[in-house]
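pasting for ref. prot 1 ->
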Amino acid sequence: MLGKGLLKGMRITLRSFFCKKVTLQYPDEKLAMPARFRGGELELDHQKCIACGLCAMACPNRVIKLTTGANEQKKRCLTSYVYQSGLCLYCNYCIEACPTKAICWDKNYENARYFRKELDVDCLALSLERTAAGAAEEAAFTGKTATAEVEGAPGGRSAE
């Protein structure tokens, strides 16, 4: 029969025409990424990191550059943690190698930049910013300022 293929194609077209549309208005609405999404940039939790360097050693392209130092207690800590996202294969080896699960992928899939140097991400600085912002938000929530938590300090609360 000659029209059988045409009728099947029209049936599929009409069925999809009357289905609910799933279009997102991109700049205003963002697509929610699943939990197993591999991409974006590395998100470091500097408080969990023990500066072992296993993530940098596991990376096949050597895109993670970290330096360590010693703190007051003679304990090893991070001094810099730079991730070059332009060279990354998104293989997930660095995350699997981390013994404390201090690094993970963020869910941001918009990682286009104008210049190649902008693809280098200072993960330690971003982690410190997130921690400081979280502390400031917590202090604002409790009604105290972050700098005047000492009793009797100017601008702080005193026990009168």
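and prot 2 ->
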Amino acid sequence: MSQPSFTISNPWRDRILRGEVCSVMSVKYVLGNEIAMMAKMAGIDGMFIDMEHTSITTRELSQLITACNYVGVSPIVRIPSKAHWHLSRILDAGAAAVVIPHCETVEQVKEIVKDAKYAPLGRRGCTNNQPILNFQAVPTQLQNQLLNTETMVIPMIETPGAVELADEFFAIEGVDGILVGSNDLCTDLGIPGQYDNPLYLDSIAKIIKAGVKAGKPIGIGGIGPRLDLLEKFFEMGATWSLSGADGSMLQAGMTNLGKKYAEINSRVLSSREAAKSTKAEANGHA
């Protein structure tokens, strides 16, 4: 009897491995399951759920991950530390990718891979009926092989020292890509917020060159509004970015709404004053 075939839905991974440019929405505040469907309807293939800079709990995370997996949006989770129990618990919750901040050394990245991958690549502990497999009963050996391949381990490069190690990071078996933390990188370079500075641009060029050489995808974080730079980096070989965040999208919409109503209020008050003046003038001539 032939073995059943098992697959994982990870549209974001599929696209970036084909070299396609892919948008990823960052989520910090809007944690209801509805946001996964909204992202799907908006044509967004990946959701970056940020545990590093938020108070998102593991339970909240697991529910949003499950919603993402069921609607077909890849849940990409930035974990809050390099601890093995953060890696394993978040992967066991169904993450399609884990992003690990502030990776500084080759040994650090090798240890991360060991904690995030099953043997023979690593030492991740086994568990069955996993959310990313839609809670299907998958034979352990097949499950472990499948998840080693299909779920992604993505260290972040955020310092000048890590930039110089990009080739070595990409060369580690089990590293599935790199995400650049632009704001921390610029800050460490002494040029906070200066995305047009040659120090930043040269650093990005080095990382992209290393990724293209290794045949592994590169993401760019922190400069979502700078579509001009992102398109340039995509032309060079990067494939995804943290394209927009729930907080900034909401704030922009609310600011626009507030501005429109302030303008309406100004026009209405002016109109009322004009009407009063006209009425007073008419009464004066009566």
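DSSP finds twelve helices and eight strands in the chain.
The domain at 11-247 is CATH 3.20.20.60 (TIM Barrel).
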